[in-house]
DNA sequence: CTATCAATAGCACTTTTGGGGGATAACGGA
DNA sequence: TCCGTTATCCCCCAAAAGTGCTATTGATAG
């Protein structure tokens, strides 16, 4: 028997959902609210196994909601349920540990399906959502853009990132500090930055080093 | 009409798949092979719209296969199809741009479904696969490591990462350079680093900023 | 009420960095 | 052979950064 808690500010929709789920033999709706302001307390009292969570609600929305729930009750399954499908929110929810992500145009049958699914450890999402998740996978591993740094410059930059001073770098390579200086000057110019901090940040963001 | 190309080393299974797909009115199997050794050439000649790709094959397996295909023909949809479900391979495929990921225990009906789905831009995956993808999302954002930096210190560090000098930071916040200095001193101590470069590197690696 | 902490600020002093000039030797391709 | 690139080195000099102290204020937790 799935104990279901619903967060959805549109009352009509919330009631429809309740009706739909109550019609199922193995589902029990333990509550429904219009925002997540008291989500911790409510989850503690109602002990749901699955939460249907809208994203856009007045007061505390679903993104804060899923974060809170997952931090305090990681064992409760949270299914996001929204009309909004921008990547920002999607990613925010997934990072917070949402167990699934449905668009509101999902059919009632699929919603039932998704609840069963998430309760048995799956992660239901529409193929469209899945596609976007995969997209970010690809872009996160973007190509190491070539700045035209020479091998030596890369070595120097690497040590700079480690926090070594010019003097230490010079010592490491048994070259003069002046040479290190020259390399750094060239590095900064090639990277279009004005100081070490910026170069370090840019290098790491470009994943020149890990 | 979907033009389908199959890579699967088990001949019996490959033939079953061909039969299954040929039975559909809108699917045409343009070829089937037992390894990916000549995948580029084959794709060029056969012009598939969707590729069903097994992972474990003698010679060049599906992981190399999907990489090659996606590099040379990014518009072709690649659906991974495998008994193996270890995370390593899964992630390798997804990073290379696979459009979906099915386990072999998937029913024929679902396979048909998945092909339709991937061809219309979705990313079919079993809820189980989806769950694992979400897992890695969470772990990738690991260590909420709390360094105990105060809000102000975070702001200062953020600007440092942007390459601002102490003077610029002071100006940005309308505070004295001495104060910026103080903050940085505290930041370096809390982070156990000795200079800005190291702090920037550490902050970015800890994903304090993105 | 007090102790702690965050944020602010100052000063003295040293070291490091960055920007501007150079220069030379070695190597490799056009 | 000549030119471009790489790696090396030098000088000057001003600006920036880093270290070690102290100190005041306001908010907050106990």
UniProtKB/TrEMBL annotation, chains A, B:
Q: Name all HTH luxR-type domain ranges.
A: 142-207
Q: Which GO terms describe its biological process?
A: phosphorelay signal transduction system; regulation of DNA-templated transcription
By its UniProt entry, which InterPro entries does this protein fall under? CheY-like_superfamily, NreC/VraR/RcsB-like_REC, Sig_transdc_resp-reg_C-effctor, Sig_transdc_resp-reg_receiver, Tscrpt_reg_LuxR_C, WalR-like
Tell me the residues on which 4-aspartylphosphate occurs: 54
Lineage: superkingdom = Bacteria
The molecular function terms of the Gene Ontology recorded here are:
DNA binding
Q: Does the keyword ATP-binding apply?
A: no
Pfam families referenced in this protein's UniProt entry, alphabetically: GerE, Response_reg
Alphabetized UniProt keyword annotations: DNA-binding, Phosphoprotein
Where does the Response regulatory domain start and stop, copy by copy? Answer: 3-119
Q: What is the recorded name of this protein?
A: DNA-binding NarL/FixJ family response regulator
């Amino acid at each position: 028997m799935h104990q279901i808690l619903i967060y959805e500010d549109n009352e009509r929709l919330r009631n429809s959902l309740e009706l739909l789920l109550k019609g199922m033999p193995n589902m029990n709706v333990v509550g429904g609210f219009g925002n997540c302001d008291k989500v911790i307390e409510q989850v503690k009292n109602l002990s749901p196994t699955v939460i249907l969570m809208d994203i856009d609600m007045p007061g505390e929305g679903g993104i804060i909601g899923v974060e809170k729930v997952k931090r305090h009750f990681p064992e409760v399954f949270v299914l996001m349920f929204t009309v909004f499908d921008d990547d920002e929110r999607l990613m925010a929810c997934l990072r917070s540990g949402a167990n699934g992500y449905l668009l509101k145009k999902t059919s009632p049958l699929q919603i039932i399906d998704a609840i069963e699914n998430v309760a048995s450890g799956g992660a239901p999402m529409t193929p469209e959502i899945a596609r976007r998740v995969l997209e970010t996978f690809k872009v996160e591993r973007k190509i190491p853009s070539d700045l035209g740094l020479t091998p030596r410059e890369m070595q120097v930059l690497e040590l700079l990132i480690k926090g070594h001073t010019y003097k230490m770098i010079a010592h490491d390579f048994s070259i003069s500090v002046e040479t290190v200086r020259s390399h750094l000057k060239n590095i900064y110019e090639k990277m279009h930055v004005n100081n070490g901090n910026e170069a370090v940040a840019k290098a790491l963001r470009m994943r020149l080093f890990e």
